[in-house]
Design a protein that fits this description.
heterodimer; A: 7 strands; B: 420 residues; alpha/beta; 2 domains; five-stranded parallel sheet
Chain lengths: 168, 420
């Protein structure tokens, strides 16, 4: 993966079935369009301190079905707006998974590992080699399907499509 | 080896024999979007192309915050109207039409055997008409507008066979909540759901729409109920004849491979209620009866159709909602709203103490109409009860059928329609 470097940051730990209404509340979906303002509402209804305290490279670690609910893409963009490095979860809701790829946000499925990571743990993620390193050890994770890896490599769907259409 | 419905629909779309697990470049017959079309158009403009690839494959319905609740919403709608005019998009339905998932079938934009995507998670609803339909994000809607294509993974299929018989006041909503409660909100993750069995066969189109609408709350990619004569009767008069000629009633082969199968016998199963704050936090009504409710909302793309209002009125007939309870009633479309008016149903609701709101998503978005105050509880026929869904994270939302909603409005607390 050419454009993605190694991610280093601390873990923000959440539970199962974290839905897009708490990641980015519906009341803002048509009125908040500025990326910075969008980022300031990230996780607002779940963890009001998140947006003001998250650091570039930090990683969200969650249980199963992360990002379930509404298809709202801002749930991914409000995280990239805060320079969140990746989301590690036991599983992802499928529309969030797509939106994250399209936003250039790495999603890592490690169902057996998320339980071994605690809030605040330092994490290193080597995307090129599919490796997550944390206090509990080193864990391999599977690569994205070859058909979609190009989207993350290009930095998101818009850049990828411009390349494909020859309009970049 | 036999094929599932989803494998067949996607094979037909890409003109190639594909099976579960493969990733395909699909060419959707329809790409649906709503009030988020302004944001989609802004991403579209970043793609470096002037015109959408297939204006006739785009459908836009303004439904989420209508009429505009403020200047920003008004500007959002205006941007969409200008884009629609500029691009020559004829399948545009303004604020006077209804909720996208009801409007698309009503306007004949859903076709059996077609592939549909929409930048709304409940796009899975059109499976009730034998379409493969799934929700996508805004950026990929923009790219679909520009290229006519989108990557999709051919999903594994989970077969859900509903047997037995539905008891009195037990509905498709109770079936769906029971399935989600039993297996969890990720029970059908990434999968296609195929609802079959005698109970599903006996269901009306409106009831099948409830099952398919709630497929996403089970984590699924799409929902599907086998398309039969009822679909033909409902849809054919609404579809352009040239387009209808392309309809294909695809069904799974008898030897199709299912990733998983669930059998649910509804005999003896009563009304179900999803409690705050997840759709899979489901209890039989007996366990939650008596909880105080401040607001009841009857409507949405899940349960805002004629049969839902008929059922509610059977419970409400001649009675008044409890003092202190606000009953909001909103039809899923203007077509339904008009039928309610013609048949005197609106008057019956008003006499029962209801407030009628205009067809649209309304309270389900939490942007306007029916936002909850701190500590208030609402019982709603909608599809999500997430924290903050109705505009306030300090409010609580219970989900149930129209019958339970009506009984609850009369009692002022969660009530079992069977005990009235």
């Amino acid at each position: 993966m050419s454009k993605v470097k190694t991610i280093e940051g601390k873990a923000w730990k959440y539970g199962d079935d974290i839905n897009t209404d708490v990641i980015f509340p519906g009341k803002y979906t048509y009125t908040v369009t500025d990326p910075k303002e969008m980022a300031s509402h990230a996780m607002e209804d779940l963890d009001p301190e998140f947006a003001s305290r998250v650091q570039p490279g930090d990683v969200i670690v969650a249980g199963k079905n992360f990002g379930c609910g509404s298809s709202r893409e801002q749930a991914a963009f409000c995280l990239t707006g805060n320079q969140v490095g990746a989301v590690v979860a036991a599983s992802f809701s499928r529309i969030f998974f797509r939106n994250a790829i399209n936003a250039g946000l790495p999603t890592i499925e490690l169902p057996d590992v998320v339980g071994q990571i605690e809030a605040g743990d330092k994490l290193t993620i080597d995307l090129s080699n599919g490796l997550l390193i944390c206090k509990a050890g080193e864990f391999k994770f599977p690569a994205l399907p070859p058909e979609v890896i190009g989207i993350v490599e290009a930095g998101g769907l818009v850049a990828y499509t411009r390349k494909r259409l020859g309009t970049d | 080896m036999g094929k599932t419905f989803s494998e067949k629909a996607l094979s037909k779309n890409v003109d190639q024999d594909v099976q579960a697990g493969q990733i395909v470049q699909a060419r959707p017959d329809i790409c649906m979007s709503h009030d988020n079309s302004a944001a989609i158009s802004s991403t579209f403009r970043k793609l470096g192309v002037e015109k959408v690839k297939h204006p006739d494959r785009i459908a836009i319905v303004l439904d989420h915050c209508i009429p505009a609740a403020g200047a920003k919403y008004a500007q959002n709608h205006k941007t969409i109207r200008e884009f629609v005019a500029e691009q020559g998009i004829s399948n545009f339905h303004d604020i006077n039409t209804g909720i996208c998932h009801q409007v698309l079938p009503e306007k004949g934009l859903v076709l059996p055997g077609s592939v549909m995507v929409g930048s709304d998670s409940h796009t899975c609803t059109y499976g009730a008409f034998g379409a493969f339909s799934t929700g996508i994000g805004r950026s990929e809607a923009a790219v679909t507008w520009a290229t006519g294509e989108i990557w999709l993974k051919v999903p594994d299929t989970m077969r859900i066979t509903i047997g037995g018989a539905l008891g009195e006041w037990v509905t498709a909503k109770d079936v769906a909540l029971k399935v989600i409660g039993d297996s969890g909100a990720d029970g059908g993750l990434y999968k296609a759901l195929e609802f079959t069995g005698p109970v599903v066969e006996a269901m009306t189109i409106s009831s099948r729409m409830v099952l398919c609408n709630l497929a996403v709350e089970f984590g699924a990619k799409n929902g599907y109920t086998p398309a039969d004569d009822k679909v033909k009767q409902w849809l054919e008069p609404r579809v352009d004849p040239a387009r209808w000629a392309q309809a294909e009633f695809l069904t799974s082969d008898p030897d199709a491979v299912y990733a998983e199968s669930i059998d649910l016998d509804m005999t003896g199963v009563g009304p179900q209620v999803a409690c705050p704050h997840t759709v899979d936090n489901v209890s039989p009504i007996e366990e939650v009866s008596g909880r105080k409710i401040d607001q009841v909302f009857l409507g949405t793309c899940t349960n805002g159709r004629i049969e839902d209002f008929e059922m509610a009125l059977r419970v409400l007939s001649g009675k008044r909602v409890a003092r202190g309870v606000r009953l909001l009633v909103g039809a899923a479309s203007s077509e339904i709203y008009k039928e309610m008016a013609t048949r005197g149903m609106l008057a019956e609701f008003i006499d029962a103490g209801a407030l009628i709101i205009n067809p649209g998503c309304g309270p389900c978005l939490g942007a306007h109409q029916g936002v909850l105050a701190d500590g208030e509880a609402c019982l709603s026929t909608m599809n999500r009860n997430f924290k903050g869904r109705m505009g306030n994270p300090k409010g609580e939302i219970y989900l149930a059928s129209p019958a339970v909603a009506a009984a609850t409005a009369l009692a002022g607390e969660i009530a079992d329609p069977r005990s009235l």
